[in-house]
């Protein structure tokens, strides 16, 4: 079974939970959209830095083009919202953990492109709009499929950890929205 198939099967429950939680945000409402972005800001910058510190550029040389932190922070700044405190980044030890975390981050871009349609034109949405190198998802999936990991469990654990961070962040922001 491919690593992609293993990740999909063993994190499906997490994916459903995250989709359900983030689906409760009304992205057409300025306040809730801001909370949605702040939830992501609790995870994305620190996690992207953790990916870099763990050597993501060895697996994806086009990593700098895939980063989304600057777009996320720019959207939050444009809304005039404060940045929330970051959650602790995931522990990413080894290639398997990198692939697992990337699986969540790259997949979230697909979801973001769908969610962007719900954001009114007068709100900033560069974070959710498709970005990265041309054919970025295909390139990622090809590389993920070509990875020969001895320990797919470590990839699954990292992916589940990242999904968990998004769940925690989303819950924190939903609790703060009046």
Automatic annotation (TrEMBL):
<dbReference type="InterPro" id="IPR016084">
    <property type="entry name" value="Haem_Oase-like_multi-hlx"/>
</dbReference>
<protein>
    <submittedName>
        <fullName>Biliverdin-producing heme oxygenase</fullName>
    </submittedName>
</protein>
């Amino acid at each position: 079974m491919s690593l992609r198939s293993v990740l999909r099967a063993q994190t499906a429950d997490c994916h459903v939970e995250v989709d359900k939680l983030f689906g409760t945000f009304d992205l057409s409402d300025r306040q809730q959209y801001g909370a949605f972005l702040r939830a992501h800001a609790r995870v994305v910058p620190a996690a992207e830095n953790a990916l870099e510190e763990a050597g993501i550029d060895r697996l994806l040389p086009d990593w700098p083009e895939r980063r989304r932190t600057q777009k996320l922070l720019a959207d939050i700044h444009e809304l005039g919202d404060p940045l929330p405190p970051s959650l602790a980044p995931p522990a990413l030890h080894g290639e398997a953990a990198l692939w697992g975390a990337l699986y969540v981050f790259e997949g979230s871009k697909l979801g973001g492109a769908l969610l962007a349609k719900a954001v009114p034109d007068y709100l900033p949405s560069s974070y959710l709009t498709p970005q990265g190198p041309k054919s970025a998802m295909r390139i990622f999936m090809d590389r993920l499929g070509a990875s020969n990991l001895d320990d797919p469990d470590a990839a699954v654990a990292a992916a589940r950890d990242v999904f968990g961070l998004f769940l925690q962040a989303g819950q924190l922001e939903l609790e703060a929205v009046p």
